[in-house]
Write a structure and sequence with these properties.
Strand order of the largest sheet: 2-1-3-5-4
Number of strands: 5
Structural class: alpha/beta
Helix content: 40-55%
Strand content: 15-25%
């Protein structure tokens, strides 16, 4: 009985997809590896090396570390919010400290409070920190 229901449902989906745009039918036979790559990289369009940068920051820090984030745009609505929330996702277990608020007011105290500073596509000068790691368009500075 289950096989019969599955067959009927499959045929119904096939008929509906062929009669409409055929997208459901196409997805069933699509290249899964290509789809996985596209869905995985889609959120980072325009920020192509940013996920790799964050993965490397994660590899060079420990859970519980605090990390201040500096990126190429230091305006909340022009991309900093994206960079901050994406970093919080990739660096789960670490405290990601924003350097500005939603209204673009700076939060300099977070820079001083951070164990590390992760700077991507941005030069950061701080005589109290040294380079822990660099690559993927950025640098990780620590005490």
């Amino acid at each position: 009985m289950r096989r019969w229901i599955a067959l009927v449902l499959f045929v119904a989906i096939a008929v509906i997809s062929v009669s409409t745009d055929a997208i459901v039918f196409k997805v069933a036979f699509a290249n899964r590896a290509k789809m996985n790559h596209e869905f995985t990289t889609y959120p980072d369009r325009g920020w192509s090396s940013y996920p790799e940068f964050l993965e490397s920051v994660r590899a060079h820090t420990k859970p519980g570390d605090s990390i201040a984030l500096v990126v190429r745009t230091m305006s909340w609505d022009d991309g900093y919010s994206y960079a901050y929330y994406r970093a919080a996702y990739f660096l789960a277990g670490r405290e990601v400290l924003p350097l500005l608020r939603e209204d673009d007011m700076p939060l300099p105290q977070n820079f001083g409070r951070a164990t590390y500073v992760a700077a991507w596509h941005r030069n950061v000068k701080d005589d109290t920190r040294h380079v822990v790691w660099s690559g993927d368009g950025g640098v990780l500075l620590g005490h």
